[in-house]
Structure formats: structure tokens, C-alpha cells
Inverse folding.
């Protein structure tokens, strides 16, 4: 709707107040979208046909087409909840408006309607243009066949006494959703591929394989960017050890690159071959145009080639890489099989195959169309900022917390891998089938974030086993909060003031539930049983959740925690940050990190230098106890403090100090620094060691 809201009349909306103005604006945007769908007009022209407002006489838009002549009279019904309907009154008003036009009573309309009405009448009379009544409903319920349709049918019959001049068409919410998705779909890529040598594979799918110059591949990346990988199970992963190795191999020995690399696989709808020679085609280059092309294997190779060409183009240009181009001819099952089978160069995770599920693409489109937010699916795609969207990982975890059964959220205590399990016992199909609405997902995500922020803010109050419960039971606690606040009753209601009325209640709910959760965990399973062991048992988790919620509902005062569960003072010196994080396997290999210094004068000194090249502020985590940061700017590994010193020197910072704490300057997604992460995990671990020995 945002594509049309800027092109419709809004001069009368101030009188309706903020909420009323927004609803009318949405209705007018829906009207403009309906005009575009039936007439083919662009958004600006469609917005200019909207007449909705005072004295519109039941007609929200009068759209004119001259070739061939056609008049569309649109009446739109908007509903935030998708429940708009069309009744006898609305039908009568629309017929009255048509009657006014037929009788040339243009003065009955507002100024916009009067001008468009005169033009429509001229088109109807001189151009013999037929008229289509378009009823646009943001809902799915068809009109009453006994109450509404006779009104329309009788009127249409009356106007058609001397020939077919008036018709009727209904548009429903599903039609608008389909149109918005089509509008947002990326333009298909026609990729030009030049191979030498080459050969054509003799099989049921037209296919070519051969050697392609790496500078040609780099030009694909420069022209099409991430669009090259839209059918891949993941986007380029950035600076990983594998990708860094590809870059170094290409620059060091370009002549051997073809032998050492697995190559690139391209799927497309159709291949248009153009041999360089008619009589001796294999002695000349083969030029292919791959229509609607996507690289399904080799995304990391393409990215590394582009980086190598930026770093040392004269050397890298000597190299070639193996490329396969396969025409699928629309066989989606075949395309999916090839995509899965060929992705073996960088490690493939279960989550990567979920990217092929059409449901995830539909959710991404719903996020953009309905919420104006991003939803990232593929591993390697940068996660959006917290206020602008979320990733599939965050969404799936939030849906697990939203599920009526506690077992799904509790299973996440050890790993998020269960989220991607398919089949009878898997979580993925339970969480995403049927497809959850975008609004539900986003609200669940924000609720879980609020729980996590509350637990993080109060972590200094807990010690020992209490810290372990909050640490490993984070998702279970989020589930309990959502159940306790009866979120299922309001999460799908568009009228709910979620940010203002619901999220502020989360902190109090956490304060009530966590002591009860700790109390029942001790009472039922003993204070020497590991929390993760309890959460791994489905029956125990369900019982623990039921007892906790029941106690919270009783309105009793939450129990006072034992003194050994309450932090008295900070512990002495802790292990070094980097070795601890590596030994704890706290950060996955390939995780993106961002440089963000907490020191103001350092920020100011490096700001201009960092702005010159965005890669200077990005690194990737490598599980190395000494040099865990793979800097994107030069593809080399550093210690956190060593990389900060290197950056200071390259930026020529004159007032740089002698030493720095690099782990406070490099942060993971969500803004947590390496130092803060290690501190948080160590504090929770100390609680486990002191109270959960088995």
C-alpha cells in the first residue's frame, strides 16, 4: 500500500484524526492498487483516478482506459484484519453512482469525481466504452448470493437492455497479496556466459560445461550482486576461512585455480547458445545466454573471485574457473535436487535447506508488504537491525516460544538445531505449517527480545543455580511469559497496541515467573539436577511449566530465593576472553563481527577512515585461540587487540594509546561485545559449577 499512498488525494484527511486518517489512506491506497490491477495503470496514474471522500457517490475511483476504451468504477473496502465485506447498502451506493454518470449528473460528485466523471461519460458515449464495476475487498468472504448479488445483477441487467455495456468484477485479499508479491519479485537475470573450451552434455536437460575467465565472473557479481544467488540455499558467507583460502589461492597461483576449485553451477529456465564458429564450433568460444539464471552452487567462489579481482586484478585475471549451465525447463523438483546436491564446498547446515521452502519466501514477502520490514532467510545474508526486521532463526525461536507446548522452547536450551528438523518429530513443520502471519511472527520476536533484555538486565542479581536457570531456560521463560500474559488472545489483533500496552508488561511477568520456575525446579527434581537435563526431558519440562504458570496465576507472592542463589559480590579475575570463547564453542565459525569502539575519541579519530571502505569495520569469527578475527579488509587473521592496533596505524591516529582491550570493540549481532559475551557465559557457568555437579 505504501507504493500508492503517496499518489492519492489526502487534503481532507486532517478532519478525521490520526487513526481515522490512516484508515482512509489505506482504503484509498487499496483503491489505487485495484485500479492498477484491472487497468494496468502505473501507481501514479492509478492514484490520480481515486475519488474517495465526501460526495464520492459510492465510487472510490473512476479509471479510464483509451486503448481499448474502458471505464472502471471501483468501490473498495479496507480492513486491518482482512475481514472486509460487501453488503446491500454498498451495492446500492455503487449503482447510484453509476446512474449519476449515465444521466450526466456530474455536479453530484466531489471535484475529483466531477472531472473524471465527465471524461468517463465522454468515453462511454463517443468511444462506446464498456463499464466494469470493480468491488475491491480486503477480505475473503464472497457477497451474499441472496442479498447482495440480486441488487448488482438487476442493475446490470437494466443497463444492458440494449447490449452488453456493464459488467462486474470482485477482487479479494488473496488477489492483492498476489499482486504485491509479483510487484516485489526481482527482475529475472539474463546471464551472458562465454566458455572456452566447452562441451554440451547429452541428457534430458540442455546443459553446457566449460572454462570461464574469472574476470567475466567478477563482472557478473558487479552487475547483479546478491541477485545472482536468489535460488541458492544461502547467500555468500563473507570472509570465512574457506573463502579467504580461495582468494589467496587465486592470487598466488592463478594458473592452478581451475584445478583446485569445485566450480560454479548455474540453473536457468532456458539456454540460448551462440557458437563462435559454424563449421568448427569446439575450436571457438561458446557464448550462452542463460535466461532467469541463478547460481545455486559456487556463491562463495563468485564472492572470492570478486574480492581477488579487487585486490590484484592483473594477476587474478589469468585464472579460469569451471562453470556448468543447466536449463531446468521449469522442473522445480529437479532444480531443488541439484541445489541440495551441489552445495558441499563450505559446510551445509540443516537451516540452509530450509531456504528452499517456498513458505519462507512468502513470509519474506509478507514482512515487506504488510510490515515494511526485512526477513532474512539465507545463512550469509546480513541480519537486519533489530528495529527493521529479523532473521528466520530469530523468528523460528520466537514461534517455538509461542507454541502452546513448552517442549519446543525448552529444546533450544542446548542448541537451535532442533528448529530445522523436519518430519513427524521435527519442530520446523509444526512451527511453519500452516504459514504463520507476518504480524504474529514479528510480535512474537519482539516479545522474546523483551524477555531476553529483561533477563540480561537482571543477571547481576542471580548467582549459582538461579543464574543457570535464567541462562539455559531463556526460551522456556519466554514461553512462560507469553502464556502467562495470554498473548494468544491478542497477538493476531491488528488493533492491539502491542508496543505500548503489551511489551511493557514483560518485565513484571519475568520477575514473577523466574522465582517460581527456580523454586519448582528445585522442589520437583532436586537442587543437584542440571537444568539442561531437566529441559531435555519433555515430560519434566511440561510439568515444570504447568507448575510455574499455576503458581503465577495463584497471585501468591513469588518465593524468596535461597541466599546462595543471590549474588553478593563480583567474582575475582576470570579466564581470558578469546580462549574461553573458543573452548566454550560460544561463537560459530563464520559469525560476522562489527567494530564499534566504546571510546568516543577513538570513534571520532577512525570515523572517516572507516567510512572510506565498509569492509574495514567488519570481520569474521574463526575458532582460533590466538587469532580469531578474519578481517574483511585484507583477508588476514588477527587477535582482537592486534587488529585494533593495526587499524589505528593504518588510520594514522596520532593520539592512539599504548594498549587496548580489543574484545570490547568487536561485537556480534545484537551489539554484544566479545568481552560482554564471555562475562555473561562465565557468570552462568560459575553458577552451574558450584551447584550442578553430577
Amino acid at each position: 500500500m505504501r507504493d500508492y499512498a503517496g499518489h492519492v488525494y489526502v487534503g481532507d484527511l486532517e478532519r478525521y484524526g490520526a487513526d481515522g486518517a490512516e484508515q482512509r489512506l489505506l482504503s484509498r491506497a487499496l483503491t489505487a492498487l485495484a485500479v492498477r490491477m484491472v487497468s494496468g495503470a502505473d501507481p501514479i496514474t492509478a492514484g490520480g483516478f481515486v475519488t474517495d471522500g465526501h460526495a464520492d457517490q459510492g465510487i472510490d475511483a473512476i479509471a479510464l482506459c483509451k486503448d481499448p476504451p474502458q471505464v472502471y468504477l471501483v468501490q473498495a473496502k479496507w480492513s486491518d484484519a482482512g475481514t472486509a465485506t460487501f453488503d446491500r447498502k454498498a451495492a446500492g451506493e455503487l449503482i447510484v453512482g453509476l446512474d449519476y454518470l449515465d444521466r450526466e449528473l456530474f455536479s453530484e460528485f466531489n471535484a475529483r469525481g466531477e472531472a473524471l466523471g465527465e471524461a468517463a461519460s465522454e468515453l462511454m458515449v463517443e468511444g462506446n466504452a464498456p463499464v466494469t464495476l470493480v468491488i475491491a475487498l480486503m477480505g475473503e468472504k464472497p457477497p451474499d448470493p441472496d442479498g447482495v448479488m440480486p441488487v448488482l445483477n438487476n442493475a446490470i441487467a437494466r443497463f444492458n437492455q440494449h447490449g452488453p455495456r456493464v459488467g462486474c468484477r470482485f477482487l479479494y485479499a488473496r488477489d492483492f497479496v498476489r499482486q504485491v508479491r509479483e510487484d516485489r519479485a526481482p527482475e529475472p537475470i539474463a546471464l551472458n556466459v562465454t566458455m572456452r573450451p566447452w562441451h554440451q552434455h547429452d541428457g534430458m536437460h540442455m546443459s553446457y560445461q566449460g572454462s570461464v575467465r574469472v574476470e567475466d565472473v567478477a563482472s557478473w557479481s558487479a552487475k547483479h550482486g546478491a541477485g545472482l544467488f536468489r535460488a541458492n540455499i544461502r547467500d555468500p558467507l563473507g570472509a570465512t576461512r574457506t573463502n579467504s583460502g580461495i582468494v589467496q589461492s587465486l592470487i598466488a597461483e592463478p594458473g592452478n585455480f581451475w584445478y583446485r576449485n569445485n566450480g560454479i553451477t548455474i540453473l536457468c529456465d532456458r539456454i540460448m547458445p551462440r557458437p563462435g564458429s559454424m563449421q568448427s564450433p569446439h575450436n571457438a568460444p561458446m557464448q550462452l545466454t542463460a535466461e532467469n539464471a541463478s547460481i545455486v552452487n559456487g556463491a562463495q567462489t563468485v564472492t572470492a573471485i570478486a574480492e581477488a579481482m579487487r585486490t590484484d586484478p592483473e594477476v587474478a585475471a589469468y585464472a579460469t574457473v569451471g562453470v556448468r549451465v543447466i536449463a531446468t525447463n521449469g522442473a522445480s523438483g529437479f532444480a531443488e535436487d541439484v541445489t541440495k546436491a551441489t552445495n558441499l564446498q563450505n559446510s551445509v547446515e540443516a537451516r540452509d535447506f530450509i531456504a528452499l521452502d517456498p513458505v519462507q519466501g512468502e513470509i519474506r514477502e509478507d514482512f515487506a508488504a504488510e510490515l515494511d520490514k526485512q526477513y532474512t532467510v539465507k545463512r550469509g545474508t546480513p541480519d537486519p537491525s533489530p528495529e527493521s526486521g529479523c532473521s528466520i532463526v530469530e523468528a523460528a525461536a520466537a514461534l517455538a516460544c509461542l507454541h502452546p507446548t513448552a517442549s519446543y522452547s525448552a529444546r533450544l536450551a542446548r542448541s537451535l538445531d532442533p528448529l530445522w528438523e523436519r518430519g513427524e518429530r521435527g519442530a520446523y513443520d509444526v512451527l511453519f505449517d500452516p504459514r504463520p502471519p507476518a504480524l504474529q511472527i514479528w510480535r512474537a520476536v519482539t516479545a522474546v527480545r523483551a524477555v531476553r533484555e529483561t533477563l540480561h538486565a537482571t543477571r547481576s542479581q542471580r548467582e549459582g543455580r538461579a543464574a543457570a536457570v535464567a541462562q539455559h531456560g531463556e526460551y522456556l521463560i519466554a514461553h512462560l511469559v507469553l502464556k502467562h500474559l495470554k498473548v494468544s488472545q491478542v497477538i493476531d489483533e491488528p488493533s492491539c497496541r502491542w508496543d505500548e500496552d503489551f511489551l511493557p508488561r514483560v518485565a513484571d511477568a519475568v520477575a514473577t515467573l523466574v522465582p517460581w520456575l527456580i523454586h519448582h525446579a528445585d522442589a520437583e527434581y532436586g537442587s543437584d539436577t542440571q537444568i539442561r537435563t531437566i529441559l531435555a526431558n519433555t515430560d519434566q519440562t511440561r510439568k515444570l511449566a504447568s507448575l510455574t504458570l499455576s503458581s503465577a496465576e495463584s497471585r501468591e507472592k513469588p518465593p524468596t530465593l535461597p541466599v546462595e542463589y543471590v549474588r553478593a559480590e563480583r567474582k575475582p579475575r576470570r579466564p581470558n576472553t578469546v580462549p574461553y570463547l573458543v573452548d566454550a564453542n560460544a561463537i560459530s565459525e563464520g559469525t560476522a563481527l562489527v567494530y564499534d569502539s566504546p571510546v568516543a575519541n577513538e570513534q571520532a579519530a577512525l570515523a572517516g577512515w572507516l567510512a572510506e571502505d565498509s569492509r574495514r569495520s567488519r570481520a569474521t569469527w574463526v575458532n582460533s585461540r590466538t587469532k580469531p578475527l578474519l578481517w574483511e579488509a585484507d583477508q588476514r587473521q588477527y587477535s582482537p587487540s592486534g587488529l585494533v592496533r593495526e587499524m589505528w596505524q593504518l588510520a594514522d591516529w596520532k593520539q592512539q594509546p599504548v594498549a587496548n582491550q580489543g574484545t570490547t570493540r568487536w561485537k556480534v549481532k545484537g551489539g554484544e561485545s566479545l568481552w560482554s559475551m564471555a562475562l555473561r557465559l562465565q557468570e552462568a557457568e560459575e553458577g552451574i559449577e558450584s551447584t550442578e555437579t553430577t
Q: What stands out?
A: The radius of gyration is 31 Å. The chain is about 45% helix and 15% strand.
